[in-house]
User: Which sequence fits this backbone?
């Protein structure tokens, strides 16, 4: 991912979302949108102009990001899962997707985006 990309951030913790936004900016990419729920993420995807995404697995209210992953897969948009849990936390349908372990570092975010 060497050219500038529009990255969707799906993260329900505002401070983590802001940190990811800063990392994406520093790495030379743009934030396509930031969402903290399945519905808000799907709205950003529907609006278009998303080249890749970072998806927190577990969102507020017991939501998980599987519907977002399905929509991105359907659209051919690459994504990485962000999780503080183990690989077992990832739905079996998506275990082949890259993961980004929490807590994040800029280096790890850069490598995860490059892997897309």
Assistant:
């Amino acid at each position: 991912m060497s050219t500038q990309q529009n990255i969707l951030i799906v993260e329900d913790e505002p401070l983590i979302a802001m940190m990811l936004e800063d990392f994406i900016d520093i790495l030379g990419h743009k934030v396509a949108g930031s969402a903290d729920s399945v519905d808000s993420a799907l709205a950003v995807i529907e609006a278009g102009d998303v080249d890749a995404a970072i998806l927190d697995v577990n969102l507020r209210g017991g939501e998980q990001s599987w519907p977002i992953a399905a929509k991105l897969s359907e659209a051919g948009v690459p994504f990485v899962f962000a999780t503080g849990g183990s690989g077992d936390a990832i739905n079996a349908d998506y275990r082949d997707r890259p993961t980004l372990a929490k807590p994040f570092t800029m280096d790890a975010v850069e490598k995860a985006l490059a892997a897309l």
The chain has a mean pLDDT of 91. Strands lie at 6-10, 30-35, 52-56, 79-83, 99-101. The two ends are 7 Å apart (CA to CA). Residues 35 and 43 are 9 Å apart (CA to CA).
